[in-house]
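Researcher: Please predict.
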Amino acid sequence: MKNIKKTIFVIIYYFLYNTLIYAPFALLNFEFEDIPIIYNIIMQVVFILSLIYIYKNDLKSHLDDFKKNAYDHLKIGFNCWLVGSFAMIVSNIIINAFSPLKLPENEQVVRQLLDTNTIYMIFSAVIVAPIIEETLFRKVIFDLTKNKNWFVIISGVLFGASHIIGSAESFYSWLYIIPYTSLGIAFAYILKKTNNPLPSIIMHSIHNLITILQILLIL
């Protein structure tokens, strides 16, 4: 019951936090790209520090476990990531074969921001996103679900949908849920097998770093 209360609190806290920190800018009709980068960085760091405080006891046990089983955990993480990345690439190729978009809208936005705010986007994608997303889409859902097979599916689908909702403008846009879900399922399976969110955070960070480097080579 205590874990459930904590989990529900984290979900509510996340949405309230993001609403409140950007509310003043919304009232002033600021576009996201007009918000000072340093403000975004500070707010993201504050949120991560608050998550660390909320999960401080869990984090200690996860760190102890990771120190003892680092090789096995990372081996599982790497293998799952390879499978998830392969599924993501294949599904992207299939979708791109008949989709006029070639890139989902959210990735187009990421490329634009990476071109104009390179340092911030690297920080956000490689450090911030893995920690926050693995907490919300893996740790939170893991703690709420008894059936861990359902956890893998639910976590993967929600992860995929979160990358499309808000930017999808056509039927073809929604198809890109499939590759994101493939990767989300892989990350969720890492947590299921290791019972530790740290390996999935590490693999998520590595995946984003590789993606960022690929985009930078193209830009």
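Model: The mean pLDDT is 91.
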